[in-house]
Amino acid sequence: MVEAGRKIGIIGGSGISELVEASTRRLHRVATPWGAPSGPVESGTVGGVEVLFLPRHGPGHSIPPHRVNYRANLDALRSLGAETIVTVSSVGSLKEDLPPGRFVLPNQFVDLTKQRPTTFYDGGQVFHVSLADPFCPRVLRAAADAGRATDSPFAEDKTYVCIEGPRFSTRAESRWFRSFADVIGMTLVPEVTLARERALCYVCLAMVTDFDTWAERAVEAREITETMEKNVGRMRAVLSALLPKIAGRRDCPCSGSLEHAAL
To answer: Is residue 38 scored above 60 in pLDDT?
Structure first.
């Protein structure tokens, strides 16, 4: 068992929640200064590792990406003891060599969202956190190792462009995105920025579910769902291999992200 307070928060879909061992499963309804999170937080263990699971889009996938209360979600996980956040997300591919079913580890992002609160610091003391390297280097290395160990290697060093949603891209937008990014999604921002403001380690395990609309065939929601269902078992195996690797004491700069950020 990991040390008290060294829990791992997992944000993702319903298939991932089944990682938690049934005999240890508990539900927590958490209130935050930012309102309610997407749903109750599920706690339990996976191979002796304490985890907290939160469905990003709520029970039954009822919350669209632009309406997710990202601040409440991150604050709820942190209040329950999470120090590391691992997210599982579906993404569209902007490159031929990243076909549906491929796992991707973004290490950079471009934010094209439009109307989401992106900070905890809306007034009073001001913090300007560095996001030059947005993802935790320790967890990125461990995730890459876990992917190789489970025969599901990640495509590494990729850029994720985050759009507002919930609509998909036009063909003109998608061709533009291809000039500077590798995958496209709707949920990375502001999760990643809020995690840095709370001095949390953060990584996104992305699963390619479709080619974005730059390809000849337009994106269909059914295709995305089918690809996710086919590959969720592989992602669960990666998580099971990854969690023990990142459950110990943090030896990365994430915990000190606020030390020189205040004005």
So the answer is: yes
Residue holding tokens 């533009």?
A: 176
Look up the domain containing 221 and give its range: 7-243
Q: What is the pLDDT of residues 76-101, one digit of tens each?
A: 999 999 999 999 999 999 999 999 99
Digit-coded pLDDT (tens) for 95-131? 999 999 999 999 999 999 999 999 999 888 888 999 9
| CA angle in degrees (0–180, nearest 5) for 33-18-222 | 90
Positions marked active-site: 210, 212
Residue 113 lies in a domain: yes
CA distance readout (Å), 253 to 130, 170, 256: 11, 39, 6
Give the pLDDT mean for 204-231. Answer: 82
pTM of the model: 0.93
- The answer to whether the beta carbons of residues 21 and 46 sit under 8 Å apart is yes
Q: Residue 161 in 3-state DSSP?
A: strand
Which CATH number is 196's domain given? Answer: 3.40.50.1580
CA distances from 127 to 51, 79, 167 (A): 29, 20, 32
Q: What is the pLDDT of residue 41?
A: 96
Domain count, the chain: 1
pLDDT value at residue 47: 84
Residue 212: inside a domain: yes
Nearest to 247 by CA among 52, 28, 93: 52
